[in-house]
Amino acid sequence: MTSSRTKWTIMVIIAIAQLMVVLDATIVNIALPSAQADLGFSDGDRQWIVTGYALAFGSLLLLGGRIADLFGRKPVFIAGLVGFAVASALGGAAGSFEVLVAARVLQGVFGAMLAPAALSLLTTTFTEPAERARAFGIFGAVAGSGGGIGLLLGGALTEYTTWRWCLYVNLAFAAVAAVGGSVFLKHERRAERARLDLPGSLTVSAGLFGIVYGLSRAETAGWDSAATLGWIGAGAVMLAVFVLIQRRTAHPLLPLRVVLDRNRGASFLGVLFLGAGMFAVFLFLTYYLQLTLGYSPVRTGFAFMPMVLSIMVGAQLSTQVLMPKAGPRALVGTGMLLGAAGMLWLTRIDVTSAYATGILGPLMALGLGLGLVIGTSMSLATLGVRADDSGVASALVNTTQQIGGSIGTALLSTIATSAITDHLGGRTPTPALQAEAMVHSYTTVFAWAAGIFLLGALVCAPLMRRGIPDTQPLHGEPVLVH
Length: 482
Hints:
By secondary structure, the protein is an all-alpha fold.
């Protein structure tokens, strides 16, 4: 029996690891302009710093989660931390664009091992209802606010040191979590021989790669290009083949029982919509604050802090106070509607908006809504799964968030580009008109993001069962603890 003090120490270790993975996206985005100037790569090449990570991370998450289930969550967690640190050191020391991209791909590979292992460790460590609610509230707060924290940390490191420290800083996170994990985590080994579904692993990895790559192509090549449609179509076909394999194999990579539960399936969809909508805030509001209002990177990071705090409050409220009383359907629906309201509120900004009157309120409403959704969905997505399925269930949470983010990136970036063109309308692009066109593109994106959250409310909430979910402890196959 693990003591209460040890459990909460494990919670801190898991939170540090999760924070490192989550903030890595925005912290690197902040560093990109400086890295580009230093290494001399083109604007067209710049996207590969982001896409390289997303392709490896998104396509290998399910495999990473199943490996954690089969071979032990502790060793996979430690290996993910060490590998992520080595890849970050390689990226920080990169002397060329090619080395930096290779490092980002390696970060994605080890992140795909680390993220599901972290969430499955949380799932199997905290099984009592009260402790589980508190733990998932903390985890949801870290997962939802990590992007904002990354903006603040990345801004400070870029402004006061060099872009390379936006990668080197991962070594500190990884070292603390790896040492703590080595000491406090227990190694669990399945009593039965581990078997990996190789055909399922190959088809799902290929399918997810095709979809993520196709979505990344949409931003530059357009949604109607043969390359975009071809990659997305090929990915969808491979995922269909994967489902057929999972129905027939004796040892599936993703047992369909994990996704066919109504509450769990709706939670995965909730995380998907959340990932798609959150992109609009972190990317386009960052552009607005820096390019239109002239904020420094550090000031931009601080501007997001009210949203970060609101996410933390919402996540804690959802898991510890509200879900035992109202149930997940009301929380996910309310959270999505709050997110939509916050986005619509942001559509009122213009080139001279003040932070206190035009941005602060929307960010707090948005953060509270995101906290309600992410706390509820992450807890419910892993509630009641068998212990030997917790890794792949956790991986599916991260996969849906990653796919949602890729959809948001492609869709909203395309919409923003079209909005600028429409606003200019063939007129002479004076500086004032260009500034108006940029703000128009941001407000258009925020309106579409509001629609994404509204659709999420209409799809996810009705799918969830009425009432309070059963918070019985996890059950599963016996394990041997060393």
